[in-house]
Write a structure and sequence with these properties.
By secondary structure, the chain is mostly helical. Strands 1-2 form a two-stranded antiparallel sheet. The two termini are 19 Å apart.
Length: 452
């Protein structure tokens, strides 16, 4: 049955209305979540040794009221997903497939690992939404290489870089990759203008990296935690760190008290305080440089490199599950921001779907990533020699490179108990690429049948 243009327009508007209203009212029906350890730092806007970068702190400190921040995050998310669906369906010729793409993207947006982020007073909601806006802006630029389109892409890159310190490093690399992409696919006049235009986001991103380096105590705490947790039961790994002057007392002080994170007791010991002040280089980076096989393959198969680790600490469970907010009974759990109580799972009112996009089942840890990469890989194979799909191929390839960099860097520089949060934006991006690839494959098959 053919879907006429007028019917498609009507159904598309209905789907947007249903998506926006569903997300808004579901999020509005939940109390804001407040992390007692992290959330307060988002309300402190400063350019002098900031704990958080200025884009997110400017937003939080300007809005101030918890409920209004949640509404703002929800509206940004709605705009991002609607814009993304609008741009991506321009790659598809069939109205049914356009509508299918829109519905699949909106269904992903309404899944609980994404939806719950809008209710929490942390940076994940804005990170996910701005990354989606970057995806849409990149696709829009590749479809129509106007200066205004590249300016919009640069704007969202700057905003994304200013939300989280780890984002700023990835944005810097992304801009460099984007310049090389334009050199390969554009004429000299165009890529020269792209290089000159990229100076603005590069300056902003460099500034954000500088601000992040001022507050490098946060990175040192994370890396110290990583060193302890990953080498605790691995004598060879522990010996390497001890030979490189890592204070041995850290291992004996790393306990879980009820009133502070375990790393707090470690860094309060005199030996660790001294080490944090005098260390000339980052030991984690030094280890990664000297052990390239660990750098490349440990995120995929940590059991081969770290004694005491299983493959449940690999990237695959986190990519499969998304975020899971467990019962709020420990120090690190989120509070109900209305009454500041540790209610058991205050997000229980959120009954949004997890399947078919996410799963907490062990059976899915390898299956879900395999399906995602299979869909993306098949699509790339089908379009690799088709000139009409050059923009689509460049779009997927660039985003895949950035995604892998995001996943690998976050695995190496994030503590295990926070891994699900830091990998969430990249998990979402992989699902967007998989959905887009699935619809693209069906679109190509339908076109081949039509012309045959």
């Amino acid at each position: 049955m053919k879907l006429f243009h007028n019917q498609y327009i009507l159904l598309n508007r209905i789907s947007i209305t249903l998506f926006a209203s569903t997300q808004f009212f579901v999020v509005l029906g939940l109390d804001p979540g407040f992390n007692p350890y992290d959330s307060p730092t988002y309300f402190n806007f400063t350019l002098n040794n900031p704990v958080r970068l200025p884009i997110v702190t400017a937003i939080y400190s300007s809005i101030k009221f918890f409920d209004f921040i949640i509404i703002f995050q929800c509206l940004v998310s709605i705009f991002a997903w609607v814009y993304c669906a609008k741009v991506l369906r321009s790659f598809v010729t069939n109205n049914k497939l356009k509508l299918s793409l829109t519905i699949l993207l909106f269904s992903l947006a309404l899944s609980s690992p994404i939806l719950e982020q809008h209710t929490i007073l942390m940076s994940e909601s804005l990170s996910v939404s701005l990354l989606i806006l970057i995806v849409a802006s990149l696709a829009n630029y590749l479809r129509n290489r106007k200066q205004t389109n590249v300016a919009i892409l640069y704007l969202f890159l700057i905003l994304f870089a200013g939300v989280k310190i780890s984002n700023s490093y990835l944005v810097f690399i992304t801009i460099i990759l984007f310049i090389f992409l334009n050199i390969l696919i554009g004429n000299r006049a165009k890529w020269l203008s792209i290089i000159l235009g990229s100076l603005v986001p590069l300056i902003f991103t460099t500034f954000f990296i500088y601000l992040g380096s001022q507050a490098n105590i946060t990175l040192k705490l994370v890396n110290t935690t990583n060193i302890i947790e990953r080498s605790y039961d691995d004598l060879e790994l522990k010996s390497w760190y001890l030979r490189n002057d890592f204070p041995g007392i850290s291992y004996t002080q790393y306990v879980l008290p009820q009133d502070e994170p375990p790393i707090e007791k470690v860094i309060n010991s005199p030996q660790v305080k001294k080490w944090l002040q005098i260390q000339e280089s980052d030991l984690v980076i030094k280890y990664l440089i000297q052990h390239p096989l660990f750098t490349i393959f440990a995120p995929v198969k940590p059991s081969l490199f770290i004694n005491g680790y299983t493959d449940f600490e690999s990237i695959f469970p986190y990519l499969t599950m998304g975020t899971i907010h467990q019962n709020n009974t420990n120090l690190f759990s989120n509070l109900n921001a209305i009454n500041m109580s540790r209610e058991p799972d205050y997000l229980r009112a959120l009954t949004s779907n997890r399947l078919p996009f996410w799963s907490t089942g062990k059976w899915a840890y390898n299956l879900f990533p395999s399906i995602i990469f299979l869909l993306i890989g098949v699509n790339l194979l089908m379009i690799r020699k088709l000139k009409n799909y050059e923009n689509e191929k460049n779009f997927i390839t660039l985003l895949l490179i950035v995604t892998f960099l995001g996943i690998w860097s976050n695995w190496h520089f994030t503590v295990n108990y926070d891994m699900h949060r830091f990998l969430l934006p990249w998990s979402v991006l992989l699902r967007i690429l998989a959905i887009f690839s699935l619809v693209s494959i069906v679109n190509q098959i339908s076109l081949n049948k039509k012309f045959n």
